[in-house]
Write a structure and sequence with these properties.
The complex is a heterodimer.
Chain A lengths: L2 H22 L6 H9 L1 H14 E2 L2 E2 L4 H13 L4 H18 L1
Antiparallel strand pairs in A: 1-2
Chain B lengths: L13 H25 L4 H10 L3 H12 L4 H22 L7 H8 L4 H8 L4 H30 L12 H13 L5 H15 L7 H5 L4 H11 L13
Helix pairs in contact in B: 1-2, 1-3, 1-7, 2-7, 3-4, 6-7
Classes of the chains: A mainly alpha, B mainly alpha.
């Protein structure tokens, strides 16, 4: 990744955070707009989970990441802290690979 | 802190949680550092990204796409789309931030999932403001230290051996889960995931994630209908 690309990303990311506080101040967006903005991350996060669990390049594969994600889901369901969830996933994937 | 009259609490209750989240993201930042270097970034680039971009989901998306062989433009588009939720967050915490422009601009950098979630969990605006800063600053410090450590160690570490690659989807799941309570969100998550599965074998890396946004069309259609009959509870029980 080039430096200009990195700085572009930084500028864009900051603009997304700051546009509300700086431009709108205390004014609120319309309820529909706010609801849509709040939902934007949902399909993206879901797609990221799928891509990073099931794909190697263009192939769909089932490997150690699947049981790791299942363990993470269990953690999330049991309301485990963020760190615990992420570490359990790493631990399950690492042991799966070491043992099988 | 203005505790209810009588016993002023010496330490606000959110500090422990803020520190806990900070430590967690520090560990997560470490794995970001490792994976960023693995995906071809230099140590300096990994650190500058954590300092200036400072939003974990977007950063992981960038190196996820780059690591899978995607183009930088695709990586950046995915990251910015993913960062669009920070706009919603920014709007929601805007009333808590200081008035002076410079301070406001600086505080905006701390607008991320965790700081906003902590602010929202507080009982009053003063504690919300405190929790926002405590969480944001704790994460900023530890996330960047973690990135530096991970990037320095990175070269000699095989991420798969330690299951570091499995930390991505687990972390995204932990970020996604609380958002699923919004009306319509579970359906969106399902649609986004399906779009990705279908496109993985067919399109360049990064596109399956970007294209998942098309699922939002489901909601756009719904809201234009939904407002007509007033804005009460979620329209139907079949969520």
């Amino acid at each position: 990744m080039s430096w200009p690309a990195l700085l572009l990303l930084a500028a864009g990311s900051y603009a997304l955070k700051a546009v509300g506080p700086l431009a709108l101040g205390a004014r609120q967006p319309s309820e529909n707009a706010a609801r849509l903005l709040a939902l934007v991350a949902v399909p993206l996060l879901s797609a990221l989970i799928v891509v990073q669990t099931l794909s190697v390049g263009h192939d769909l594969v089932i490997d150690a990441r699947v049981p790791a994600l299942a363990a993470a889901a269990l953690c999330v369901w049991r309301r485990a802290p963020f760190l615990v969830t992420v570490l359990v996933a790493a631990l399950v994937a690492a042991s799966w690979r070491a043992l099988l | 802190m203005s505790a209810p009259s009588g016993e002023p609490s010496p330490r606000p209750p959110y500090l422990a949680s803020a520190l806990g989240i900070g430590v967690a993201t520090g560990a997560y930042g470490f794995s970001f550092g490792v994976l960023a270097v693995g995906a071809g970034l230099s140590v300096a680039q990994a650190c500058v990204m954590s300092l200036l971009v400072f939003t974990g989901g977007s950063q992981f998306a960038v190196i996820g796409v780059l690591g899978a062989g995607g183009a930088p433009s695709t990586a950046i588009s995915s990251a910015l789309l993913l960062g669009a939720r920070n706009t919603a967050y920014g709007l929601s915490v805007a009333p808590l931030l200081p008035r002076p422009l410079a301070k406001r601009a600086l505080a905006s950098h701390l607008v991320i999932d965790e700081s906003v979630a902590m602010a929202r969990a507080q009982p009053d605006p003063e504690q919300a403001r405190g929790a926002f800063y405590a969480t944001g600053v704790a994460i900023f410090i530890l996330w960047n230290l973690g990135t530096l450590g991970g990037a320095l160690v990175g070269g000699g570490l095989d991420p798969e051996r330690y299951g570091l690659d499995a930390m991505f989807p687990a972390a995204f799941l932990a970020l996604l889960a609380p958002q699923l309570r919004q009306p319509g969100a579970p359906r969106l998550a399902l649609a986004g995931g399906l779009i990705a599965v279908v496109l993985i074998p067919l399109t360049p890396a990064g596109v399956p994630v970007l294209a998942s946004c098309l699922a939002l069309l489901l909601v756009v259609r719904d809201t234009s209908h939904g407002t007509a009959d007033g804005d009460g509870a979620p329209q139907d029980g079949a969520r």
